[in-house]
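Rotation project, supervised by the postdoc (A.L.). Task for the rotation student: set up a whole-complex structure prediction and record inputs and outputs verbatim in this book. Inputs entered:
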Amino acid sequence: GQNIDQPTEMTATEGAIVQINCTYQTSGFNGLFWYQQHAGEAPTFLSYNVLDGLEEKGRFSSFLSRSKGYSYLLLKELQMKDSASYLCAVFRAGANNLFFGTGTRLTVIP
Amino acid sequence: SAVISQKPSRDICQRGTSLTIQCQVDSQVTMMFWYRQQPGQSLTLIATANQGSEATYESGFVIDKFPISRPNLTFSTLTVSNMSPEDSSIYLCSVASSYNEQFFGPGTRLTVL
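Outputs recorded:
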């Protein structure tokens, strides 16, 4: 079977750094995705890790350790507009589809 | 990236009726998916819509309840049959690029009374 765990909610201060963790157990792993979803909107792609290590893209970075079944999304210089849900998803090889975690609702406060 | 449109954007339906949701993509794609997102929850995959063959359903979802069509590489429909209030949800169409990245449509917000 598969399972993905993320914290349900997090709060951070504008301008700060926040790390959202994701642990997973799955068969046929072929990469890990992070999506951002604002309330009432569709998810939008943030990052994709298939190899171990850190991928940096502007204020957002994502890390993957396949041996540990662990990923994190790092958000720097937080802005109020970063308040959203952040979804961790595993790409399942063979099935060629995404399995989503429960999502982390991030609230950025002044 | 692919541009995806869905119709309707929202609907309010009576218990026992059926609703068909359409998904149109601006380019040919091999993989199309249908997800459900219940209020306050994450996305759950309903099925993979296969062109030229039956859809592949995830555990807990069946063809009689969620029939899917995929007549070509740019279009798919999902029908929510014999609806009940528990079917109230956002239904999202998604497509996969050649790099496994998935893009999502704007979603269809369904309320069943």
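Student's summary: Residues 24 and 75 of chain B are 5 Å apart (CA to CA).
Supervisor addendum: The longest strand of chain B covers residues 89-96.
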